[in-house]
Design a protein that fits this description.
Calcium-transporting ATPase, cytoplasmic domain N, alpha+beta, 11-stranded mixed beta sheet, 8-stranded mixed beta sheet, Rossmann fold
């Protein structure tokens, strides 16, 4: 093959079959067997149940033993299904952001998934991109890389093109996983996947599973509950032993009861429900174009108090369109929208040929040659797809409207000084037809500072102070009307110092209109108590103009040079009042984030460049751009926006709040059920001497049934509760505890109420109506199951009543409740009643049971209504 033409597609396909995909073995991937083993390994509940099963076999309770074994399988299966679904959802999220590489095949540039690269492929890399495979350098411009992922040293590494193919050293290689800090290059792929240096290192690594902050909170709750459960279980067993004569069978029965109580009160489902809820929340975010890179971000999103958002491409559409070109003596306007080449050049409202206007033609040439990006025509129209920077794409579209393309020039690049966010300027030295020339573009103030001359009507003059003032005045007018401006310059001498003594050509003014959804998203932020701060590298006037268009209240503003001079203490005092930061460099962003964090704010920060990475890491939630963001920014971010849209951040915050609220609901519900069961069994034993009740009030298998069917199943479905309409009208959560004092009070009250109602039903059936233990026990079991189902519906909302809402507000909960009721009926009215030692109950008994259920619903609806008016408890 010819190196500059790359591989042929047919060759690439054969090589892909030979070498395989350019992927690392997913060492973090969890197999089904490993998921099953995780349900058993270290699971105290499983061990307790197995002991109970063996004891049941030992005393001849065969049905009970098999039933306990069934419960073991059910617990393992429930855990497996939830973890398997969570793993599947997480893998689906990973696949939504497949890395893309620009490759040359059949002599044409195209974008392909990095996984399809093969040895021999010719690839193009730019500043901020990750090296997708192990490569040999072919050509480079001002190239430096960060290889800290391999070396551990965060320093820039220079690379050079090999002098010959025989003597190739590490200095000539690009290593997979490193990224371009500056410059650009072309390279040939040498090794892919596990054959790369990066792949060999990855093969030696074993991934440690990270525990999320919420996981820690949940596990702490589980440990406390386990201790309380075992303590009360032992106390219950001790009291029970004192009530009856001691026989071997009675001792084993009490021991099994103690195990059953421990299992029932141990919140085995909490960690599983947490993972399911988080992965479900992440999947919902993905559907709204927000890809969660780290699960911990979901909690932080829900707590966000400040959003620091980039203007360009996040608040605005990111489709730059050149509207005006201003030379020292002329003002040209350009028609057309977006990336379409349809459009005319106008002067004094008359259509003109731009090629016949010397300065305008020179500006078009500069914007075309001094440009790192490319545009490719979309078939069947005048629309182009920009490949690279949106601003540079807009300049190429402007030139295309004049019929000027890069391919029209025979210019050879001799030197290039790339654009960077610090320099804000790009300059290129070219040789064309034996003549050299320098072309430069960049931020107006930066370019103007490096200009010593100006061109007027084809003649070059020394730039006077009044010329400089006139240019700055014109620029100020443009930026105050939301135009983004670039200064354009050239020269035909002094090539050893390309950026000195330039000749000023004019101003290119473009606009990037705000996104349609931003205005509503900002209103939502205002209602939610979230402050929004616009951060931009643009001029302050442009930023203010955009802010007014989108309805962002313009408070105080601050520019980059003012930040440089300002002390931290001063900035900390005024940062709350500042809504716009203009002419900001990446190092300013990290300082802004730190100051806000010191003020106690929970900060979500957006960024797209290599140098934004430190600020994204510093923020509580770093948000990278999926379209215009660099590989580096995406790799450190917690969240990636597939559409680069500010409104998507607000949607993600809403989903974060919903997920956190749902976790509070399912934790509160499950703990109140656990406490109710403990209290019923413990108080039931204590009341034996006074009421003559049988021991135990509920049997071991019945307790295990409830734990499986009515505790875990509804708890899981509470994690899928939809967002409440007013979730974005609440104040930011700001580092709220999962369980506050009010919630603990609610848990205790609900548990106590369920306990009292269940004991009351047992008293009516046993002491007042029938005096039959099995009958009273069955009715009490049915009552407790219905009370727990009703509680699940009560916990759907901490403010809205159950009776005023459809049961299908949360469809999974409705279906889970139907399953729970069906299982209960099966246990009472089918031969299963032999195993669970239940008996059929009458309509009167169901009437008492349903009456108790409505009591708990009515009580909670009344309390919610009172709380809504008085606001004496906040959850």
């Amino acid at each position: 093959m010819k190196k500059e033409e790359g591989l042929k597609e047919t060759e690439a396909k054969k090589l892909l079959e030979k070498y395989g995909r350019n992927e690392l073995e997913d060492i973090g991937k969890v197999s089904s067997v490993k998921i099953i083993w995780r349900q058993v390994k270290g699971n105290f509940v499983i061990y307790l149940l197995l002991v109970a099963m063996i004891l049941s076999f030992f005393v001849g309770k065969i049905f009970t033993a098999w039933a306990i074994l069934g419960v073991v399988f059910a617990v393992v299966a429930a855990g497996f299904i939830q973890e398997f679904k969570a793993e599947k959802a997480i893998n689906a999220l990973k696949n939504m952001l497949m890395p893309i590489t620009t490759v040359v095949r059949d002599g044409k540039e195209k974008e392909i998934p990095s996984s399809e690269l093969v040895p021999g492929d010719l690839i193009l890399l730019r500043n901020g991109e990750k090296v997708p495979a192990e490569c040999i350098l072919v050509s480079q411009t001002d190239l430096s890389l960060d290889e800290s992922v391999l070396t551990g040293e965060s320093k820039e590494v220079k690379k050079s093109v090999p002098k010959n193919e025989k003597n190739i050293s590490d200095e000539n290689k690009l290593f997979m996983g490193s990224f371009l800090v500056s410059g650009k290059c072309t390279a040939v792929v040498l090794n892919t996947g596990m054959k790369t240096q990066f792949g060999k290192i990855a093969g030696m690594i074993s991934t440690a599973e990270k525990e999320l902050p919420l996981q820690k909170k949940i596990n702490q709750i589980a440990k406390i509950m386990a201790f309380v459960a075992i303590l009360i279980a032992v106390l219950t067993g001790t009291v029970a032993l004192l009530q009856e004569p001691l026989t071997e069978e009675y001792l084993i029965e009490i021991f099994i009861l103690v195990i059953a109580i421990s299992v029932a009160a141990f919140p085995v489902g909490l960690p599983l429900v947490l993972i399911t809820t988080l992965s479900g929340g992440a999947y919902k975010m993905a559907k709204k174009n927000a890809i969660v890179n780290r699960m911990s971000a979901i909690e932080a999103l829900g707590e966000t108090t400040v959003v620091c958002a980039d203007k360009t491409g996040t608040i605005t559409k990111g489709e730059m369109t050149v509207r005006k070109v201003i030379t020292p003596r002329r003002e040209y306007s350009i028609t057309g929208v977006g990336y379409k080449s349809k459009g005319d050049f106008m002067l004094d409202e008359k259509k003109i040929d731009p090629k016949k206007h010397n300065e305008l033609n020179l500006i078009l040439k500069t914007c075309t040659l001094c440009n790192d990006s490319k545009i490719s025509k979309i078939q069947g129209g005048s629309e182009y797809k920009p490949n690279g920077n949106p601003t540079e794409g807009a300049l190429l579209i402007m030139s295309a409207k004049a019929g000027i393309f890069k391919e029209d020039f025979s210019a050879e690049s001799e030197k290039e000084i790339p654009f960077s966010s610090e320099r804000k300027q790009m300059t290129i030295v070219v040789k064309e037809g034996g003549k050299k020339a320098v072309y430069s573009k960049g931020a107006l103030e930066v370019v103007l500072e490096k200009c010593s001359h100006i061109i007027k009507e084809g003649e070059i003059f020394r730039m006077l102070e009044r010329d400089r003032k006139a240019i700055l005045s014109e620029n100020s007018k443009l930026t105050s009307n939301s135009f983004r401006t670039l200064g354009v310059a050239f020269k035909e001498s002094g090539f050893d110092k390309p950026e000195e003594g330039l000749v000023f050509l004019g101003i290119v003014a473009m606009e990037d209109p705000p996104r349609d959804e931003v205005k509503d998203a900002l209103l939502l932020c205002k209602k939610a108590g979230i402050k929004v701060k616009m951060i931009t590298g643009d001029d302050i006037q442009t930023a203010i103009a955009i802010a007014k268009q989108i309805g962002l209240q313009v408070g105080q503003t601050l520019e980059g040079h003012e930040l440089d001079e300002m002390k931290d203490q001063t900035l900390k005092k005024i940062i709350d009042e500042i809504t716009i930061f203009a002419r900001v460099r990446p190092e300013h962003k990290i300082r802004i984030v730190r100051m806000l964090k010191e003020k106690g704010e929970v900060v979500t920060m957006t960024g797209d460049g290599v140098n934004d990475a430190p600020a994204l890491k510093e923020a509580h939630v770093g948000v990278a751009m999926g379209i215009k963001g660099t590989d580096v920014s995406r790799s450190v971010a917690d969240l990636t926006l597939k559409d680069d849209n500010f409104a998507t951040i607000v949607d993600a915050i809403k989903e974060g709040r919903t997920t956190f609220n749902n976790m509070k609901k399912f934790v509160s519900f499950q703990l109140s059920c656990n406490y109710a069961e403990l209290a019923i069994l413990f108080l039931g034993v204590l009341l034996v001497p006074f009421l003559g009740w049988p021991i135990p009030l509920l049997l071991a298998l019945q307790i295990l049934l409830m734990n499986l069917v009515t505790d875990n199943l509804p708890a899981i479905t509470l994690g899928f509760n939809p967002s409440s309409r007013d979730i974005m009208e609440e104040k930011p959560m700001k580092k709220k505890e999962l369980l506050n004092k009010n919630l603990l009070t609610l848990i205790a009250f609900n548990g106590l109420l369920m306990c009292i109602l269940t004991l009351l039903v047992f008293f009516i059936l046993y002491n007042v109506l029938r005096g039959d233990a099995e009958y009273a026990r069955t009715t009490a079991l049915a009552t407790l199951i219905l009370l727990e189902i009703a509680s699940a519906f009560n916990f759907r909302s901490f403010r809205k009543g159950t009776l005023t809402r459809s049961i299908f507000t949360n469809k999974p909960l409705a279906y889970a409740s139907i399953i729970s009721i069906a299982v209960t009926l099966a246990v009472i009215y089918t031969p299963l009643n032999i195993i669970f030692e239940t008996t059929p109950i009458t309509l009167l008994d169901w009437g008492i049971t349903i009456g108790a259920t409505f009591i708990i619903i009515f009580v909670f609806d009344i309390l919610k209504r009172i709380n809504e008016k008085r606001k004496f408890m906040e959850f």
